Each structure stands twice: as structure tokens, then as C-alpha cells.
TrEMBL record:
InterPro entries: NAD(P)-bd_dom_sf, P5C_Rdtase_cat_N, STEAP_metalloreductase
Domain of life: Bacteria
Gene3D superfamilies: NAD(P)-binding Rossmann-like Domain
Keywords (A to Z) from UniProt: Oxidoreductase
Species of origin: Kribbella koreensis
Name this protein carries in UniProt: NAD(P)-binding domain-containing protein
Domain (Pyrroline-5-carboxylate reductase catalytic N-terminal) ranges: 2-93
């Protein structure tokens, strides 16, 4: 699959490494430009590009940048994407880093619901509740006891299934969280956040979640 990754930090860099190793055609971009990605490209074989080019021809585009930076992404970012492309949002809202986001704090949007609004595109929320090192190192074959499961939320079932297949390739189970409006169940501070639970454990933790935002994650 042709995949564009916007962001080369902890999760973006890890996904670039893992997805390239699986044989996917990966383009990666960040705010500092392709030259800053020379080492990552040499290590992985991924193609460094400008942010405005990251989605060109991509069947799947991963947006993995600080939440507060999302509105600054280029207009027309997805104009060159492949038909039926899917956008994955891995982000989390941390007010201390991102500043206060009124749509989340006051209007009650889920974090990825707000991201979808900013992008003007439906998104699938995934990869937001696992530490990058664990995403890099802890994938195991399907059927392995205790295999870590990752929650996946979104409004398009086919898009979620595409992301879930990718999660399986990476060595994790995928658990359908529901719609994007339900994705508060996997936001920071929820029981499933960085829990590294198996599929049954993830379902149990999702069921225990409450929509109230913890004080530590309020702006």
C-alpha cells in the first residue's frame, strides 16, 4: 500500500520504520522539510517529501503531529490522494503543549472529531494509546496469547477495516471502539490509554471509560 505519514516524531518515526519494513511504499514529511529526514530515509527506504506532497497517490495518510498544529496543515493537502483514501489520526490533545482548544473544551467534540473538522476529512482514530517504543518492539503474530490490542474508532466501517488489517500486520489486534463520537473512550486519561491490554482487556477498559475529561487533560 502507498502510505503518506505527516509527522516524524515518536509515533510517526516508528510507523515509518515498521510500515517500510513490511514492504509498504512510505512517504514521510515533517515541518522541518525533507532534508531533516535524510537519516530516517536512509534507515528505512522511505521517501522524504514536503508536507504538501505527503498525500500524493496515498491510499492511507497518517496525521501524527501535535494537535495544536493541525489547523496549520496546507490547504488542499489531500487533493492528490488516491481514490478512497483513508486518513488516520494518531493524535492526542495535551493542553499544556497544544494550547486550549475550544472545540474540544467547550463544544464537547472528541479530539479526533475536532481533527476531522479541521482537516475537512473523515478520520479513523488509531495508534494514540500505545507508547512508540511498544509499537516498535511489541508486535507479535496473530493468535499469540496476550497480544496487545489497539482501539480503532471511526464512522466508515471499510476505512476502519483497512486500518485494522494494517494493525494486524504490525503485530497487534484491533478492537472496534465505535464511531468517532465514541472515541473519547480511548483519549488520554481513559482506562485504555497506554494500558497495553489484550483484546478482551481493551473491551473491558473501554466499557469502564467515562466521558468526563480528567483535570490533568483540561486546558
Amino acid at each position: 500500500m502507498k502510505i503518506g505519514i505527516i509527522g516524524s516524531g515518536n509515533i510517526g518515526g516508528t510507523l515509518t520504520r515498521r510500515l517500510s519494513a513490511l514492504g509498504h511504499d512510505v512517504s514521510v514529511a515533517n515541518s522541518r522539510g525533507p532534508e531533516s529526514l535524510r537519516d530516517l530515509a536512509a534507515e528505512t527506504g522511505a521517501t522524504p517529501v514536503e508536507v504538501s506532497e505527503a498525500a500524493n497517490g496515498a491510499e492511507l495518510v497518517v496525521v501524527t503531529i501535535p494537535e495544536g498544529k493541525v489547523p496549520a496543515l496546507p490547504a488542499g493537502l489531500f487533493d492528490g490522494a488516491a481514490d478512497g483514501f483513508v486518513v488516520v489520526d494518531t493524535g492526542n490533545y495535551y493542553p499544556q503543549r497544544d494550547g486550549r482548544i475550544a472545540g474540544i473544551e467547550d463544544e464537547g467534540l472528541t479530539e479526533s472529531g475536532w481533527v476531522a473538522q479541521q482537516l475537512g476529512q473523515p478520520v479513523v482514530k488509531a495508534f494514540n494509546n500505545i507508547m512508540a517504543q511498544h509499537l516498535l518492539e511489541n508486535g507479535v503474530p496473530a493468535g499469540t496469547p496476550g497480544r496487545i490490542a489497539l482501539p480503532v474508532a471511526g464512522d466508515d466501517q471499510q476505512a476502519k477495516e483497512k486500518v485494522s488489517r494494517l494493525i494486524d500486520e504490525l503485530g497487534f489486534d484491533a478492537v472496534d471502539t465505535g464511531t468517532l463520537a465514541d472515541s473519547w473512550r480511548q483519549q488520554p486519561g481513559s482506562p485504555v490509554y497506554v494500558a497495553d491490554a489484550d483484546a478482551d482487556g481493551v473491551r473491558k477498559l473501554l466499557a469502564e471509560a467515562t466521558p468526563d475529561r480528567q483535570d490533568a487533560f483540561k486546558g
